[in-house]
Input
Amino acid sequence: MALPRFPRPTVTLPFTAWRDELLAWYRSRQPNEQRLLRAAAVVVPVLLLLSIASGLNTVVGKLERRVATKRADLAYLQSVLPVLENAPHPTADGQTLISVVDASSREAGLTLAGTDPIGTGQLKVRLENAPFDSLVGWLIRLQQTAGVAVQSAAIDRTANPGQVNATLTLARP
Output
């Protein structure tokens, strides 16, 4: 059994009506005007595409220069990273390990013969002719007040009783 056929409705879409009006207008033009309109129909989209492509080319050029700058910045930062890693690190109170050690050694009455930063958060300290009792007391206070620990120590006695030469490696976590 075949299905009944219904007539198709004829609906005029707005685009169809607009197109018909445009074609009627075009046909009402003189032949030389029609040629000009056909040429404009080709040239205008081409010019529009060229202007879009030119704008995109400009944007791409700027982005390429920006990427090159960012790569140069990254290369510079990677080159100075080892220097920055070995630089003294400030603590929560803003003092570096060397400043804490220097100030506390003066408070303890000790004179530092030399200090050398070793790496991240480490410091090599030399003391000459330091009173042993003062040295030990200073190291204990340094541990308790600033969290500075002795990583290694080489202590040698001197000709003066109770006095030592010391080379210490101090570190703060």
In short: The chain has a mean pLDDT of 86. The two ends are 91 Å apart (CA to CA).
